[in-house]
Specification:
GLA_domain; single chain; mainly alpha; disulfide bond
Length: 101
């Protein structure tokens, strides 16, 4: 009986504390935080993209790894078609995300 009373008491405390909190859904767009930190200058963004592209070069992958990517990509007809046009790395990345190794 004591545990039931304690449980009810804790629920009442939680209800009282949550009643005083502002509703997050009723915040107007004017009160929302600004997104000033989201935008990056064009030259900085291109440097980051170039560095990311340089991280996975075809020379870094062995023949066995490329063959493994090719086998995965051949299971998907659209990926296989893109592989013939754009290359195995571009096709695998477009359909399956970053290369796992």
């Amino acid at each position: 009986m004591k545990s039931l009373t304690l449980l009810i008491f804790c629920c009442m405390i939680a209800a009282c504390l949550s009643a005083g909190l502002p509703d997050t859904k009723s915040v107007s767009p004017a009160e929302s935080p600004s997104d000033d930190g989201v935008f990056v200058k064009r030259d900085v963004a291109s440097t980051v993209v170039r560095q990311k592209r340089a991280g996975t070069a075809p020379a870094d992958l062995t023949v066995a790894q490329l063959e493994s990517l090719r086998e995965v990509c051949e299971a998907n007809l659209a990926c296989e078609d893109m592989m013939d046009v754009s290359g195995i790395i571009a096709a695998y990345t477009a359909y399956y995300g970053p290369i796992p190794y």
